[in-house]
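This part of the workshop introduces the protein records we will be handling. Backbone structure tokens are a discrete shorthand for how the chain folds in space. Once this layout is familiar, the rest of the handout is easier to follow. The record below serves as our worked example for the rest of this section.
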Amino acid sequence: MAHTDISWRSVRHAEGFYTSEVHSPAAQPIRTFLPTGYEPRYAYPLLVFFHGHGGSEEQILRLAPRLSRRNYICISLRGPQALGARADGRIGYSWGPDGQLDAQVEDYVIEAVRQTRRNYHVHSERIYLAGFHEGATLAYRLGLTFPEKIAGIISLNGAMPRQGGPLMRLPAVRQLRVLIGHGIANAVVPLSMAQQDYRLLYAAGIDVNIQTYPATHKLHPDMLKDIDRWVMSAIQDSIPAESTEEPEESEN
């Protein structure tokens, strides 16, 4: 995807959280985390976060500095369906039942990634979709539908769609990498569902890894460490020995 604005080549943005919007068709938020020491000449991996049922883009993006303060540009998006106020008084959101809003969400995600690439230096072959719970199902749906646009899928305490033939894009989906992180005591999405997903993806010839944690449906701190190691190891493996590219070191 060609850049129409190359201002990212020289602008050194400060580390922190930024807010913007996608205006297609209505205003939809993009929350962005930029790493410390942002270097416009380095093509960063991009992680796109999808929150769980009742969450928000603000909530899920707070994970970004705990993942790494240096290695990634991260964006988080908001589910299109408002669910009402949570216990803390903030509005919770959903991505919609059984993929019914996927057409709307697809446009939102594609434009959010395009807009991020216009503003910051993102490596086109290092874009990952990462979802928690309901957001993981969305990450699977989008990643398995558009495997040529992303490098991999990260599922945290979530599961693949159980409808719609998620592996219809074989053999194209075999170029993807998938990381599954799941709590062994997760009663909301049982571990058996994640293990079933692993077996299905492995049998389809996809590079898939599953990690389990002593946790329920909450995120375990080691999940973030494992994501960082998993993404950075793939980047390091893809760099030829004679390359002068120097990706940032993993922070754990």
Observations:
- The two ends are 32 Å apart (CA to CA).
